[in-house]
Amino acid sequence: MGNNQRGPGNAGAAKANPGGDPPASRPIAKALGDGLVKWHPSGKLVGVRKVGEGDNLQGHYSWMHHLLPYIGHQDLYSKFALDKKWSDKGNLQSCAQIIPEFLNPSDDRLRWKGYPFENFALTHFVGMSGIEDARNVVAAKLPRSDPRAGIFGYDGIATPAEITDGTSNTIMVLGGGELASPWIMGGGATIRGAREPYFDKISGFGSKGTSGVTVVMADGSVRVISSNINPAVFRALCTIHGAEKTDLATDAPPSTDK
User: With contact defined as beta carbons under 8 Å apart, do 150 and 239 qualify?
Assistant: First the structure.
């Protein structure tokens, strides 16, 4: 995984086939944003829900699993035996369930292709953990009190009250670019920090069908930010209490992509 704890990523994921898997709902990320606003203040949240032993965070449940009831998938959530890992035989079939709210309609990668997660359903979005400004910094491992911290940490998620930069000025979730991973997996598969170059074609953030990245702010609003955004402004949007002054209307205008 490397020092920045990237998830597995599957750039060659299985494509959609007509009449087969369901398409994502439009507009992109609107339903996800609505669900996040309901889920976020619901209690003490963690980025990774650990079950049993094991230090490999990808082997534990992601925050996206906990979000399922808030985006209309209570039935699927209830199918998991939560006293067992997602890799338990009884849970594996549910890991293959495609969740339209986790997908970008312009991205036809729906399932993991090949070993070791054959057929697992993917997410095109990840939670923002903050700024990774040095080689060994993993933003998701920082205390949420650190000025580099974003909303998502592995052991805890910042509450709305802790976002002193303002929920409308703070990125909660954004497009993961070429690194599409199974939504069920914890760790770097579904939580990532911002590391320069932020919009690298291989390892950076991005959303297919746009010239930048689709982001869901902590107030549930959705916008597309250009990859040409001033890096300092993007960093400010990734943290919860950096005390930077940003004006989205002028500093980070949405791209003209639909």
Answer: yes
